Amino acid sequence: MRWATRARVHVDRAACAWLIRRFVDPEAEFVFVEDPTDVPPDATGFDMRGVALSHHQGRCTFETALLHFDLTGDPALEEIGHIVHEADLADETFDAPIAPGLDVLIRGLTLTSDTDEATLALTDRLFDGLYEHIHRRMLSGRPPA
Amino acid sequence: MVGVMTEVADTDEWVLLAYRLPREPSTPRSTVWRKLKRLGVAQLSDGLVALPADARTREALEWIAEEVLEHHGEAMIWLGRPADAAGRAAIEQRMSAAVAAEYDAVTTEAAARRDGDPATRRRVVARLRRELHRIQARDIFGASQRDAAVRAVDELAAQLTGQART
Questions:
Q1: What local confidence, expressed as pLDDT, does residue B163 receive?
Q2: Which of A87, B45, B96, B153 has the fewest CB atoms lying closer than 10 Å?
Q3: CB–CB of A8 and B55 under 8 A?
Q4: pLDDT by residue (tens digit) across B64-98?
Q5: Using the beta-carbon criterion (under 8 Å), do A91 and B2 form an inter-chain contact?
Q6: Do residue A58 and residue B67 have CB atoms under 8 angstroms apart?
Q7: In this complex, is the C-beta atom of A122 within 8 Å of any C-beta atom belonging to chain B?
Q8: Beta-strand pair A29-33/A43-45
Q9: More confidently predicted of B1 and A38
Q10: Which residues of chain A fall below pLDDT 70?
Q11: What 3-state class would DSSP assign to B17?
Q12: CB-based burial label for B25 (10 Å; 0-12, 13-18, 19+)
């Protein structure tokens, strides 16, 4: 499937792209547009105004996506949702002390990446690691060494 | 080429949000206003706020516009340039003064808390550091009062570590 989002991705879009690729559509192909009206007709838009997969009722797009794709049963994903929310919106809805760090790291990666694809290649690894860390901590009850 | 994706803030261009929300229910009104305040917007008039435009400020106001629409209000994002240099300077000055006052309040509290007991001071340090992060997020013009506030909190924290060693 094709998925479209705004060019120059940041934390919420990077997290959504990772979620889509890992949990929804392994063959996902991403298109980056300047304006919501540029979304190709065969693509599903996300994290842009006027689409279902976006900010709604105070939720960031990643949190909306968890609901939309029925992934709320995975507590590790839910925790990533809280981190992404705070990294994106910083409205202190959740206690997510790593959020400011994630925000800075992803902004830094976009500064040193020539394309959105290049950014996502790195942020996919970042979110893989974050998921694994949270997942193992939840299994064992303590942070992995 | 490294850096092609960097978006430098155009200091001349501002992003504006014109919005109107029903008077009742009042919760969405206060939620929206709290979010705008957190961003450090300049309120130009009732229902019209502005920030110097960059990718981050524009996106933040766009999401708030969406939220206004979801609560059956009206909202529209504009991009514009102040045509009145003196007016613009006054607005920037007002925004800077608001942030400076917040930094000064942190400096004052950090200084006043030096005689507290260690447990209280530790909590105060943690709270003031969180407060500094919040203020910095809306410190668009880089207020010079920041350094003094950071130093005052660092000093309060250093005093604690000094105490812990004895």
A1: 56
A2: B45
A3: yes
A4: 999 999 999 999 999 999 999 999 999 999 999 99
A5: no
A6: yes
A7: no
A8: unpaired
A9: A38
A10: none
A11: strand
A12: exposed
